[in-house]
Amino acid sequence: MTNFVDSHCHINFPELYQNIDAIFSKMSSNKVTHALCVSVTLDKFPDIYKMANTYPHIFASVGVHPDYENIQEPTIEELCHFAREKKVVAIGETGLDYFRVQGDLTWQRDRFRTHIKAAVQSNLPLIIHTRNAAEDTLKIMREEGADKVGGVMHCFTESLAVALEAIKLNFYISFSGIVTFKNAIELKEVVKSIPLDRILIETDSPYLAPVPYRGKMNDPSNVIYVAEEIAKLKNISVEEVGQVTTNNFFRLFSKCNPSN
User: Which helix (H) or strand (E) holds 196?
Assistant: First the structure.
């Protein structure tokens, strides 16, 4: 039986959580067995952790998104403290965003370094967000030794060159519903060019619903459409995409494995 895993979603957001039972039912219908609910602020982390503890098939991360400037700034100690919790399997999402945020972004780069240091200390993988900032993102990853723990470049929209550099640093490349869009020509070429054993699939829900639901609210059940597009681009079966990306997920986020 083919199974799929949504490696990045925000089902704690109110617009999804208010219908969580229906969402879980849809996931089951589409054979989406697990999902990683990703933290964007520390004040909402308790909600994510409670959800992960309530539902066996949901995992959590801890981190502060680079888009939020005037917010509780995480420390290495805080991130490491939360990282010790059983269902917390990653640090992030973290990274750099030069598209949504302008001006002196030293604080953003400092925050990114804090997350990488915490990940290395906790021996947990990183979930990295980068937009219009690939050069600085890779530079900081190298300087802080992100390759020691690896991780995932989430919702990837950068060039093939960036993808290959990230893979060299022990990172996986995760594709969202964007890859199903007709105008995502360069991104489709990235999918064709990198090995399947370095690919993850995600929804980033409630955002970025794939075709045929583009423009509507997204949820983890729709990750199957990302898998179908990758299968088409690589000329392989969707069953193979499901199997390999699921294996990749549990290899990267090894704390998800109950035997660990």
Answer: none
Residue 83's alpha-carbon distances to 45, 74, 86, 130, in angstroms, are 11, 13, 8, 22
Q: Is 70 left (phi over 0), alpha (psi -120 to 50) or beta?
A: beta
Per DSSP, 39 falls in state: P
User: Alpha-carbon distance 197 to 220, whole Å?
Assistant: 21
Cα–Cα separations (whole angstroms), residue 25 to 30, 31, 173, 177: 9, 10, 28, 20
3-state secondary structure of 236: coil
Give the mean model confidence (pLDDT) for residues 213-230: 97
Write out the E strands in the chain.
4-9, 32-37, 58-62, 88-97, 126-131, 151-153, 171-175, 199-201
Q: Please, which pLDDT band fits residue 2 given cuts at 50, 70 and 90?
A: confident
**Structural tokens at position 76:** 């290495």
Q: Which of 119, 129, 113 is nearest to 89 (CA)?
A: 119
Would you say residue 260 has pLDDT above 80?
A: no
Mean pLDDT on 58-70: 95
DSSP per residue, 142-193: HHTTGGGT-EEETT--S-HHHHHHHHHTTEEEEE-GGGGSTT-HHHHHHHHH
CA distance 11 to 193: 31
Strand partners, 95: 129
Instruction: Give the whole-angstrom CA distance, residue 45 versus residue 118.
Output: 16
pLDDT band at 258 (very low <50, low <70, confident <90, very high): low
Torsion angles phi and psi, residue 5, rounded to 5:
-130, 130
Q: What pLDDT sits at residue 211? A: 97
Taking the CB of residue 210, how many other CB atoms lie within 10 A of it? 23
